[in-house]
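Example record used in the benchmark description.
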Amino acid sequence: MTLIRTAAAAFAAISLSTAAFAAAPAADTPAPVGAEPQNTSATYGDWILRCSRGADGKRACEVEQPFQVQVQGQQAPFGQLAMGHQNGAPQMHITFIMSPNVSFPSDVKLMVDEKDTQPITLSWSNCVPAACRSDGEFKDDQLKRWKALTANGRLVFKTAAGQPFPITVSVRGLAQAIDALGKD
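Model output (structure tokens):
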């Protein structure tokens, strides 16, 4: 999944020293560009289907929904929820990445509403100064349930102050984006 690869790359890049980048030799000639695009995206309502072609030529796709928060009258990125098949696995993987402001120990709950008795649990896997990441899996029945929703869902985590913080998860376009993901 692109977000998962991007997050892993971001976490790895943060740990590298700037000296390693300074020591890297510059390429004399640029690498050739193929006829197929390296990255594509399509928007389905409030969801984005993103696909990237790796160096090995394989395509990895995911659907994602970015979250923003208003800071001093401006919209600023806050987090991102992504779903896709990780390394060709049949189970749908879910990743939520957000700026650090979480309480430990805790989990993230993806819920159809505040009374959901079967929330999807995403476990925090790591935090670096720039972001915290949680991961979980959609079971087939949960995925069908989410695709059929007509009202928005919720993503709830505990802030660093220990307070529950709900985020609205739009379902507008989710079913169509997941169906398109299955075609890629």
